[in-house]
Amino acid sequence: MTTSAAAPLGSEGAIGDGAVTDRLVHANERYAAAFSDPGMDARPVLRVAVVACMDARLDLHAALGLQLGDCHTIRNAGGVVTDDVIRSLTISQRALGTRSVVLIHHTGCGMESITEEFRHDLELEVGQRPAWAVEAFRDVDQDVRQSMQRVRTSPFLLHTEDVRGFVFDVKTGRLREIDPA
Question: 17, 45, 94, 135 - which has most CB atoms within 10 Å?
Answer without folding.
Answer: 135
